[in-house]
Specification:
about 35% helix; alpha/beta; 13 helices; 2 domains; Rossmann fold; 4-stranded parallel sheet; homodimer; 11 strands; about 425 residues
Chain lengths: ~425, ~425
């Protein structure tokens, strides 16, 4: 029989709703006291699991879990650390199983993206090989929306909502000022490898003339002349132009615009930032007054404007992971299956991790409009349901969100120290 | 007797709540049909007033006005245009009075900052000189919070709330990732001349270790060594460091850090952006992985996270302006007077424009902590009430805010065309 305890770990970049998944995992496990004992969180993700730095969540009250559910960031800490293949790093997989064994853990839930699906898959195989009874499941999460099999990834919908609201609001601003001041506004969003987030910003553009008038995707080579022409056309027609640029925008040679060699006053290369580069181009080629914003982590942590649909997805995959484990499933991931676009209906299904690991869902070509600067109706039908609904955190009497910032209780280690490679 | 119509104009940079003032002006005027006729909006601010481009607001329904009240940007358009002195540009002041006369306008309300207070003041004097019966009033607005006499400026509280929520959320993100990834996060906020907005971000820091650990004010010369030492101390103590930097941050010689000569790959100077410069310093001197965001217009248009206190202020000054005009007052501005910090109580008073025009309220020295990187308790007492309360816009079924974007109805001109200088 597998151990009754659960180990839950967060992996990679956090999202506005990954803690909603965490809360849902803990809440669901508590609903089955005959089947599950303690839920442990791994401090700093898989690194903490390897180092046997576990957090006991028993001290979280039911109210704490409600608060956790509306708190951005990753409550136990996350990390960027990819376990190597079984052959290359057997030592780490064996250590992980030893840690699980030492704490009577029969369920391992790894909440992350592609890499985590791969790791969870390998752990399930390793446990089998070692004869250790384990249910190892992946739980989807990534603002990049690039997991296959699942219709969408928890985290993405909230980022999509943030960039939509932000570009709409900023466009109303520049629209007001354009007669005598700023005419072009450029907003940089995440998505180094795929334009999912940039595409989502296109939802704001519902009719001719609506912002953003231009989206720059990583999937479409940046053409300076065509871009400037399009900006100028919008300034002429609408009085202003709003541009959303993906951090992954690149030129015909595949070079990231952000890496084009920007150096600052101190002579060192600047760290990221495609928006100022595009702003420089607008200023130089067109002479329009331009403003730019870089959303960076703000978009990825904006729980205050989370999508209610996204929160529901994040909670549902957490619940399903525990229920699938309870039913004895291993080597799987709960995925979101879309039943219909309108009315929007969805359900949770179980999918083999082997089908998900190491694949990447790119933005389909037919989601990008012919001119390369916008999204198609097909993209809109897919994206729109994901930003629906608001799910506000409560605020304290001083006007700040009541985010949950617990004192974490580490579990006493039972094994010798271990240093990950 | 002054004409019964009202001309309302928006001036300078817009705010998340300037339209709440506009809605309140129109609503209040409608409450007094015996005293007031039509409320006209000046298209693109004072430029439209000079060019006789007026908007008739009669077509706005009561529901429209409610929607206007929760819409960011400036509904009639704003502009950056400062009328010169009476002596230097008598022609424009005379033209303005001619436009008012042609449309039976007896009340002129100028919704803006310092310059607008000055302009409204001069118009009131000019009208008197020409024997034109006019009530000319200023109505306060500016995210910069730099108007004197008034306790605070409508617009500032909402920006303050936005930067607070944003730095709190992004800090929860970097906190989660700091063990193996980003350790320093830098967020750039507005305030080229004064650190009011940067100071407001300090509200998030309620206790030792809370973010933002460092604020860079325009009022404190940037000291690279002291800054890096402070960043490193926070990384050692807290595992990460959150920095809020004002766009107006400058070195000991008074040079803006943002203007330090950043050039991009195309060889031209970059347009603004102090956050990447500071990020470069952190990377170079400390070697920590760093992320940065530039809020730009997002902070100034974020009606979705407006402060309810700020919205109440914005509405109150709009209402008072109409009521003061009705009582025959001219050459004044409704100002916010604070009665007590805790419980927070305030009222609206009438102040002479002459006392307000051309003065600037800078951030008091005793609002900045001794180390130059934070705010004092005194600052906190002043700032905290301004971010209190939430005032969400309604959202449509597709997950976007229902912002009011009316078709504006221009009034047929009655005068010859006029070109502002």
């Amino acid at each position: 029989m597998p151990g009754t305890n659960i180990l839950y770990a967060q992996s990679g970049g956090v999202t506005p709703v990954i803690n909603a998944t965490a809360a849902s995992v803990i809440e669901t496990a508590r609903e089955y006291p005959d089947d599950f004992g303690t839920v442990f969180g791994a401090a700093d993700g898989i690194i903490g699991a390897l180092e046997e730095r576990l957090i006991d969540t028993s001290s979280f009250s039911a109210d704490d879990l409600v608060a956790l559910g509306h708190t951005p960031g990753g409550v136990f800490g996350s990390c960027r650390y990819k376990l190597k293949s079984l052959d290359d790093n057997r030592r780490e997989y064996e250590r992980l199983v030893a840690v699980l064994d030492a704490h009577d853990i029969g369920t391992f839930l790894y909440n992350g993206g592609n890499d985590s699906a791969d790791t969870a898959y390998k752990i399930s195989r390793m446990a089998e090989e070692l004869g250790y009874p384990l249910r190892a499941l992946g739980v989807p999460k990534t603002i990049d929306n690039d997991l296959v099999v699942t219709d969408n990834c928890p985290g993405f919908g909230s980022v999509a909502k943030y960039v939509n609201v932000s570009i709409l609001e900023a466009s109303l601003d520049v629209m007001s000022m354009s007669s005598s001041s700023t005419k072009v506004f450029i907003m940089e969003v995440m998505g180094r490898h795929a334009g999912w987030i940039a595409a989502a910003a296109g939802l704001t553009r519902r009719g001719e003339g609506d912002p953003p008038q231009i989206i720059l995707f990583p999937e479409v080579s940046f053409d300076r002349e065509a871009f400037c022409k399009a900006v100028d056309r919008s300034v002429t027609t609408n009085g202003y132009c709003s541009v959303v640029v993906s951090e992954g925008a690149r030129d015909a040679e595949g070079t990231f615009l952000a890496d084009a060699g920007t150096t600052d006053a101190f002579g060192h290369k600047q760290l990221g930032g495609v928006a100022p580069v595009v702003a420089g181009i607008v200023g130089e080629d067109l002479g329009h007054k331009v403003h730019w914003a870089v959303c960076d982590y703000l978009q990825r942590s904006a729980r205050h404007i989370a999508s209610a649909t996204d929160v529901a997805h994040a909670r549902a995959v957490g619940r399903a992971a525990v229920e699938f484990a309870r039913a004895g499933q291993t080597g799987v991931m709960p995925v979101i299956r879309r039943i219909s676009d309108e009315p929007y209906e969805w359900t949770i299904a179980s999918a083999p991790l082997g089908d998900i690991a190491n694949h990447e869902k790119t933005l389909p070509a037919d989601y990008i409009s012919d001119d390369g600067f916008g999204i198609t109706e097909k993209a809109r039908r897919y994206l729109e349901p994901l930003v629906r609904g608001e799910d506000y955190p409560p605020y304290d009497e001083h006007g700040l969100p009541k985010y949950f910032r617990p004192t974490l209780h580490p579990v006493k280690p039972r094994l010798d120290p271990f240093t990950p490679a």
